[in-house]
Specification:
Largest sheet: 2 strands, antiparallel
Number of strands: 2
Order of helices and strands: HHEEHHH
Structural class: mainly alpha
């Protein structure tokens, strides 16, 4: 016998709708799988390495410069890791140099303080000795044209250290008796112009 099958338009639409729905579901599932795979791939290749670099930077910024960071990757992430490691080494080197300079500076400061204290003791001893012997000392800087007196010289001449200017040579000479002024003036000129020392008792 013969079997005749009649496919009505309604039947065809129903079957087509079923196939389309199944394909749509399959496509959605496939897309979700691809998105999940892409997310995990990005997480593994980008997010986690960048998070690791960020954590390393945070550790370095907190002052722990002995924590090194390395990567075998040859891409941008690997270059970023290399740059962070280079930055860490540079900062560590500069800090070590800074510590060395600071230690040297502290030693220099201590040496200077000891030298200043020794100078103060020496000056105090000199002033006490001059007071006991009633002898004073002075120095003239030819280049600066500046006269410097010890405290005892001010005391011997009876002038105030705060108000009297020892650079007034003519006034200084006037402290000597009239018969001695020419002698001291000539001795001073010879010392200045001809670099001759002198030792006078006037």
């Amino acid at each position: 016998g013969t079997i005749e099958v009649y496919l009505t338009p309604e039947f065809m639409r129903e079957k087509l709708d079923n196939v389309t729905g199944s394909m749509l579901i399959a496509l959605i599932i496939l897309n979700m799988s691809l998105v999940s795979a892409l997310f995990f791939s990005i997480r593994k290749s980008v997010i986690l390495p960048v998070s690791h670099v960020a954590e390393s930077v945070r550790i370095i910024a907190s002052g722990h410069l002995d924590s090194s960071i390395h990567s075998e990757r040859k891409d941008e992430i690997g270059q970023l890791v290399s740059n962070v490691e280079s930055m860490r080494l540079t900062i560590k080197k500069h800090l070590e140099l800074l510590r060395e300079k600071n230690e040297a500076l502290q030693i220099e400061i201590m040496d200077r303080k000891r030298a200043e204290e020794a100078l103060r003791k020496s000056e105090r001893l000199l002033n006490e000795t001059q007071m006991l012997t009633k002898v004073g000392g002075w120095e003239y800087d030819v280049e600066e044209k500046k006269m410097m007196w010890t405290d005892q010289v001010y005391h011997i001449y009876g002038v105030n250290r705060e108000t009297y200017d020892p650079n007034d040579i003519e006034e200084n000479v006037s402290f000597y008796g009239p018969e001695d002024r020419k002698t001291i003036e000539q001795a001073f000129v010879n010392a200045w112009d001809k670099n001759r020392s002198y030792d006078l008792e006037l």
